[in-house]
Amino acid sequence: MQRFRTPFFQNVATVAGGTAAAQAILIAFTPLITRLYGPQAFGLQGLFLTIVALGSTFAALAYPMAIVLPKSERDAIGLVRLSLTIGVVVTLATCVLAAVFGEKILVFLNASELTKFIYLVPVAMFVAVCNETATQYSIRTKAFKLIAGVSAASSLISNTLKAGFGFVVPTAGVLIATNILGHAIKVFLLLKGQLKNRTASSVRIKSVDNDAMWTLARRHSDFAQYRAPQNLINALSAGLPVVLLAKYYGATAAGFYSLAVMALAVPANLIGSSVLQVFYPQVNEAIQRGQPSKHLIIRTTLGLVLIGILPLLVIVVGGPWLFSFVFGAQWDQSGVYAQWLSVWLFFQYVNKPAVAAIPSLMLHRGLLIYELFSTSSKVLALYIGFAVYESDVVGIALFSIAGVVAYVWLISWVIVHADRSHKNSQLGRQP
């Protein structure tokens, strides 16, 4: 019991508590929201969020992830400014692309209903950049209580608005707008909390000149060169089923998939994201000090396996019945998808310690190569299911199996490199 009183487990419990509150709020509202809006509205929202996710991965070139790393506070603030500057430029460029190609792309994807919301895409992208930047800086300052409280508050506000408007105008547009507003509120509360708790840096963003900012950009260029493309490929891999389901089977099928992923993400967000946020700075410190990280990664991964195995079995066995009972009879097909997706998302959840160690181990290039092969296998799996077998369920099943194989390889690869990195650091210290 003593080791569960260590700062690491206490911080995980803090973040998990806030995430648990946010997810509990989501769980409480979702059965009502699914009955108000229906699969088609969820499908259009899912497609919109997929487009935003693809753009957001490149909107700041992954520089927010580097905010945790520098020892100097001025460098960290410089990375904050760099992230926001790039975010503004990419957002403006996205506005131009939306004006020229937006309608054509949506028609091709069988989602012309989203045309009137196309200019919300760049808005949502910039809000996502601000959210990621504020969150990473809060992780750097170890403001875990702040992160926990903000997660719960923003979830309550967002879901209350969805439910309230759902009685009046239950449309995809309402789901999209309230989603963006929820993230914007989260950014505002994080910034307000940092200032109130006086954890915000005394170094002002304006005090970091352009030369210093671009020097930081070059110093951490591996994030832009390798991590940003990797994030894009990863987002494409995760969003591809929504896009293809919408194109070949309509927005309703995309809605079934979107609800399945959202519902299954509850345990992953509850524990996995909390571990990722706390584990990232811890493993970074351990590697910087030359301490072994291999067993730290293994222990944390196995702990996640033990916590998540029972919920996985419940979904695999009773998915369709559970989804019909909780979300309404019209969501039965979503439960069928969930039976397969739960296995894939389980391994996505347990790989969080390995993913957190990648920046500190400088494995961005290898991760990019991994994502290329992983995404290619998933694309092939969906093609075989949709085109060869002409079945949405077969496509989702093959997609999930390909994802499981890829995640198992990723975890093993990171553990091997963590061990090798420690041995090399020990050899370097020998006289």
Describe what you observe in this structure.
The chain is mainly α and 431 residues long. It has one domain. The protein is built from 14 helices and no strands. The chain has helices at residues 7-37, 39-59, 73-108, 120-140, 144-166, 172-196, 210-219, 221-249, 251-288, 294-327, 332-350, 352-361, 364-388, 392-429. The radius of gyration is 21 Å and the shape is globular.
Number of E strands: 0
Total domain modules: 1
Radius of gyration: 21 Å
Determine the N-to-C terminus distance.
40 Å
Outline, from the CA principal axes? Answer: globular
Describe the largest sheet: none
Helix % is over 70%
Mean pLDDT: 83
SS content category:
mainly alpha
**Beta-strand content estimate:** under 5%
Catalogue the unreliable spans: none
Written as H for each helix and E for each strand, in order along the chain, the element string is HHHHHHHHHHHHHH
Number of helices: 14
Short account of what is shown:
This protein is mostly helical and 431 residues long.
How are the secondary structure elements laid out?
Layout: H1 7-37, H2 39-59, H3 73-108, H4 120-140, H5 144-166, H6 172-196, H7 210-219, H8 221-249, H9 251-288, H10 294-327, H11 332-350, H12 352-361, H13 364-388, H14 392-429
Helix pairs in contact: 1-5, 1-9, 2-4, 2-6, 2-8, 2-9, 3-4, 3-7, 4-6, 5-6, 8-9, 8-13, 9-10, 9-11, 9-12, 10-11, 10-12, 10-14, 11-14, 12-14, 13-14
